[in-house]
């Protein structure tokens, strides 16, 4: 995608440069509006007419430079580019803007359409730096391709002579110089205009339209199984076939991918030089004109399938990238070599300066050495005179020293005697010190023993104190527990007394209730004796008259015959009989 945008930028750069009439590097905003509108129209991008004014609203100083237009171009146009527009129409729009100003049609042997194709080829082969130029290596590559397409032979010496003329132009050409070079026929002498035009078209189709091979072949139909002559175009990812080579009526495409294959077929049905292309959904049988064409087509198709399988670009794209990488590598090596040469030259100049400085130092050192030698000789003679004077003084001093040595010898003897006496005293002092040291060791041993006994006594005392403290804690804890138990006992005794009092109160209440019950039962018995005689008199009138009986303490039952119309027993029997009737299953009809 980055390389595709670079190709688009090259064409846009030509258009922008053509609008720069004064060659000041700036273009007016009105012209940029027209350019931007045309770009959006050709590239099928929604155009925002206000975006340009908004983008440059703070720039009121006049025309806009290429550097100022690039942010707008990237943001509002190139970032929105999709692969859904015709690149040839895009290139023609940019070509129309720049050719009107720059193309000199005088003495050209080619048409405007051929010049446009050379312009597209230049954009493809030019370097990715501005202003755009084509280096001599790419010029040679293009001219070789053009010569082969025209059927001519490449003359290396002629191009080498032309390269010598390019040395003054840094071994490169711009697009208009390249169009003039081809259009004036410098490398196509002996060729007519039609041959030159066909050669340019063939190179254009290969490099720009990615047509790797083209030509007439016979194709077998899928439905009628008849053989028809078609014009085939091989591209990196498909094979297109047309009715004729003018490409006006397209009949179909054979889509290629990494899973396709191409194989040779034996002659059959009167057709020779057969091969077939097998895809995932269909297979296509094709017949070439001869064995050479057949082999070229099989090899070309197999190359495309292999490149698709490994994800590599078309051969001419890959070859261009390799040439650029090789040039970059050579340029880097050349720059490194030049850098090393400059470093070596600098180092050599530094060495020369160092040698010159050393020579001057040596001359100064020789002059200093001669002066030093003269001074040394003068100093030596002065030292010899001084030495003779010193020798005489030394003799006198030696005599005085000999006398002093004799006197010192006697003093030394006396000193040695005193030293011997001091040595004897020192030996006796050492013996006394040894005895004192032994006594101190004995004293230290006794002191350590006493200290150990004292430590043991302190340890025992500490253990006794811990035992005593533990006993005190145990006694304190026992007393606390005893007090707690005493409190609990008092609480429980108090609760027990309260419970006994409540129990006695309940007992008294129970006896009172029993006395009331007996009194009530006695009243009931008296009432029963009073009404017994009345029951005997009206026994035969049971269904007509009901004696008024003392009602119960609980609420009376109320029936259809009024309050207390039935006894409790009769009412229970009637309820039981009614419940049984209710629970009895119904008799089937």
TrEMBL record:
Pfam family membership, one: PH
Main location: membrane
Region Disordered, residue ranges: 312-336
Subcellular localization: Cell membrane; Cell projection, Lamellipodium; Cytoplasm; Nucleus
InterPro entries linked: EF-hand-dom_pair, EF-hand_SWAP70_N, EF_hand_dom, PH-like_dom_sf, PH_domain, PH_SWAP70
All copies of domain EF-hand, residue ranges: 7-42
Keywords noted in UniProt: Cell membrane, Cell projection, Coiled coil, Cytoplasm, DNA-binding, Membrane, Nucleus, Phosphoprotein
Residue ranges constituting the PH domain according to the UniProt record: 210-306
Basic and acidic residues: compositionally biased ranges: 327-336
Gene Ontology molecular function: calcium ion binding; DNA binding
Top-level taxon of the source organism: Eukaryota
SMART domains linked: PH
Signal peptide: none
CC annotations in GO: cytoplasm; lamellipodium; nucleus; plasma membrane
Subunit composition and interactions: The SWAP complex consists of NPM1, NCL, PARP1 and SWAP70.
Role summary: Phosphatidylinositol 3,4,5-trisphosphate-dependent guanine nucleotide exchange factor (GEF) which, independently of RAS, transduces signals from tyrosine kinase receptors to RAC. It also mediates signaling of membrane ruffling. Regulates the actin cytoskeleton as an effector or adapter protein in response to agonist stimulated phosphatidylinositol (3,4)-bisphosphate production and cell protrusion.
Protein name, UniProt field: Switch-associated protein 70
Organism of provenance: Sinocyclocheilus rhinocerous
Lineage of origin: Eukaryota, Metazoa, Chordata, Craniata, Vertebrata
Gene name of the encoded protein: LOC107756911
């Amino acid at each position: 995608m980055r390389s595709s945008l670079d190709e688009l930028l090259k064409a846009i750069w030509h258009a922008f440069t053509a609008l720069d009439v004064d060659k000041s590097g700036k273009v007016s905003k009105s012209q940029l509006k027209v350019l931007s509108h045309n770009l959006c129209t050709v590239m099928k991008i929604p155009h925002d007419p206000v975006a340009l004014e908004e983008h440059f609203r703070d720039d009121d100083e006049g025309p806009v430079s290429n550097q100022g237009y690039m942010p707008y171009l990237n943001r509002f146009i190139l970032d929105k580019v999709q692969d859904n527009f015709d690149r040839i129409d895009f290139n023609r729009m940019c070509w129309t803007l720049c050719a009107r100003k720059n193309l000199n049609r005088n003495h050209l042997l080619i048409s405007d359409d051929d010049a446009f194709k050379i312009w597209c080829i230049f954009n493809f082969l030019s370097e990715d730096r501005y202003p755009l130029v084509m280096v001599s290596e790419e010029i040679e590559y293009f001219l070789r391709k053009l010569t082969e397409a025209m059927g001519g032979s490449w003359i290396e010496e002629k191009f080498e002579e032309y390269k010598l003329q390019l040395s003054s132009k840094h071994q490169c050409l711009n697009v208009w110089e390249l169009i003039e070079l081809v259009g004036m026929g410098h490398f196509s002498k002996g060729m007519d205009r039609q041959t030159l035009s066909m050669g340019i078209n063939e190179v254009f189709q290969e490099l720009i339209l990615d047509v790797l091979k083209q030509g007439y072949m016979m194709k077998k139909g899928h439905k009628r199984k008849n053989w028809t002559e078609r014009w085939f175009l091989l591209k990196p990812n498909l094979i297109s076939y047309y009715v004729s080579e003018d490409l006006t009526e397209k009949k179909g495409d054979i889509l290629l991918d990494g899973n396709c294959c191409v194989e040779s077929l034996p002659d059959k049905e009167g057709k020779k030089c057969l091969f077939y292309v097998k895809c995932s959904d269909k297979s296509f049988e094709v017949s070439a004109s001869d064995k050479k064409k057949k082999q070229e087509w099989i090899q070309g198709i197999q190359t495309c399938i292999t490149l698709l399988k490994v994800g590599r670009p078309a051969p001419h794209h890959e070859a261009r990238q390799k040439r650029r990488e090789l040039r970059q590598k050579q340029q880097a090596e050349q720059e490194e070599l030049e850098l090393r040469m400059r470093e070596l030259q600098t180092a050599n100049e530094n060495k020369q300066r160092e040698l010159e400085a050393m020579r001057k130092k040596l001359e100064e050192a020789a002059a200093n050495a001669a002066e030093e030698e003269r001074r040394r000789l003068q100093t030596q003679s002065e030292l010899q005179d001084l030495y003779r004077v010193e020798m005489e003084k030394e003799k006198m001093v030696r005599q005085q020293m000999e006398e002093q040595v004799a006197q010192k010898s006697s003093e030394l003897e006396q000193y040695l005697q005193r030293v011997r006496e001091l040595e004897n005293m020192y030996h006796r002092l050492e013996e006394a010190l040894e005895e004192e040291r032994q006594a101190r060791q004995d004293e230290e041993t006794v002191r350590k023993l006493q200290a150990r006994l004292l430590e043991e006594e302190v340890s025992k005392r500490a253990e006794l104190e811990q035992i005593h403290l533990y006993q005190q804690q145990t006694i304190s804890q026992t007393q606390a527990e005893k007090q707690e138990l005493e409190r609990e006992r008092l609480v429980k005794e108090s609760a027990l007394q309260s419970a006994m009092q409540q129990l006695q109160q309940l007992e008294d209440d129970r006896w009172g209730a029993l006395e009331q019950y007996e009194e009530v039962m006695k009243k009931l018995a008296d009432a029963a004796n009073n009404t017994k005689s009345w029951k005997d008199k009206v026994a035969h009138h049971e269904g007509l008259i009901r004696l008024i009986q003392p009602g119960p303490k609980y609420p009376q039952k109320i029936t259809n015959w009024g309050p207390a119309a039935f006894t409790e027993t009769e009412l229970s029997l009637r309820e039981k009989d009614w419940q049984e009737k209710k629970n009895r299953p119904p008799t089937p009809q």
